[in-house]
Write a structure and sequence with these properties.
Length: 374
């Protein structure tokens, strides 16, 4: 079966009790046990819920894993994955990681004696240098946010294997439609399902997927113990979103490429960051590890004033944090997603006041381009 078909026919699309072409929302916290000697499949919805189960099985299939866990947000998924670590463990992490991941590592996990080193993962020798005897995890994000830097995932996995480390990747930007990191040897895949998986800017959710029994048991322990589970209604919304993942990703990517090429030709644009452009430094690597480039890009304007004017004057683009929805979104990383990162660090990463990030939705690209011209 081809992947586009699998998104709709993965064994979790029909309600086994009624034949309904949509798994019902089991809005229940607890489940009657007819025989206390032989408990049923479900006892309490923090530990397991049929709607969440259907979503988790779907996520496992579409990431080519065996176990998936749905969380209350992408950050709950990131944090729950990192919570499998022990006091004293060390994480090597991409320098231009999602702002929330930066914050939780530097200001939360550090309290429990879990240390980290941020490295520029576009050069794998930096990863080697950062590994010490306490290192347990290499945490990747590729493409990265908001600079769309590409990490050689296969190369990073090889380094991790050599040192006996676990690899985790935030796969939010490409979604499993374009990139399936478990196939590249990564151990844990993490999503903010709020973005492309949900796709409609109407739900906050997250997921962790693996094909390791051992890691799955650890993640389930955190999911059930810490309890940052996704509610049944939100699970249902995600399942609905996933049904159109292929259609959305294909069209949104097509438009993103068109807009990236157009931006490159504008006199008021100094830089365009989109891995689908042939001159992007990670273009060849992403082609070798993913089947597409996604629908997020960023660019720099000639002046900071112009960037601010664009943000103020756009009519079709929404000005918002978040990405991956059917509606196009402009964001200003300095004030939004990356405001938590101290300015000197931000500037070092290239996140300057003339940088704008685009998440391209389903509108006609011609209208989106016209709206950016001021
Ligand atoms: C949005 C996002 C997150 C956090 O997800 P939430 O659902 O907002 O908690 C993590 N990683 C990336 C790459 C994101 O874009």
């Amino acid at each position: 079966m081809k992947y586009g078909t699998l998104l709709l026919h993965n064994g979790n699309e029909i309600d086994p009790h009624t034949g309904a072409l949509s798994i019902p929302i089991y809005q229940a916290s607890t489940f009657h046990q007819t025989d206390i000697e032989n408990p049923g499949s479900y006892d309490y919805s923090r530990s397991g819920n049929p709607t969440r189960d259907a979503l988790e099985k779907t996520l496992a299939v579409i990431e080519n894993g065996t176990h998936a866990y749905a969380f209350a947000s992408g950050m709950a998924a990131v944090s729950s994955a990192l919570a499998i670590l022990e006091q004293g463990d060390h994480v090597v992490v991409s320098a231009d990681i999602y702002g929330g991941t930066f914050r939780i590592l530097s200001r939360f996990f550090s309290k429990f004696g879990i240390t980290h080193t941020f490295v520029d993962m576009t050069r794998l020798e930096n990863v080697e240098v950062a590994i010490n005897q306490n290192t347990k995890v290499i945490f990747l994000e590729s493409p990265s946010n908001p600079m769309l830097r590409i990490t050689d995932v296969v190369g990073a996995v090889a380094i991790a294997k050599k040192h006996g480390l676990i690899t985790m990747i935030d796969n939010t930007f490409l979604s499993p439609y374009f990139q399936r990191p478990l196939d590249l040897g990564v151990d844990l895949v993490i999503h903010s399902a709020t973005k492309f998986l949900g796709g409609h800017s109407d739900v906050i959710g997250g997921a962790v997927i693996t094909k390791s029994e051992q890691l799955a048991a650890k993640i389930y322990f955190v999911q059930n113990g810490f309890g940052a589970i996704l509610g049944p209604q939100d699970c249902w919304l995600l399942m609905r979103g996933i049904k159109t993942l292929r259609a959305r990703m294909e069209i949104q990517q097509q438009s993103a490429l068109k807009i990236a090429q157009w931006l490159k030709g504008q006199s008021w644009v100094t830089d365009v960051y989109y891995p689908g452009l042939e001159d992007h430094p990670g273009h060849e690597i992403i082609k070798s590890q993913a089947s597409g480039f996604g629908a997020v890009l960023s660019f720099k304007t000639d002046t900071m004033e112009r960037a601010k004017t664009i943000m103020k004057q756009v009519k079709i683009w929404s000005v918002a944090v978040s990405l991956g929805g059917v509606e196009s979104i402009l964001s200003y990383p300095v004030k939004m997603s990356h405001a938590a990162i101290p300015k000197p660090e931000r500037e070092r990463l290239g996140i300057t006041e003339n940088l704008i990030r685009l998440s391209v939705g389903l509108e006609e690209p011609d209208d989106l381009m016209a709206d950016l011209e001021i």
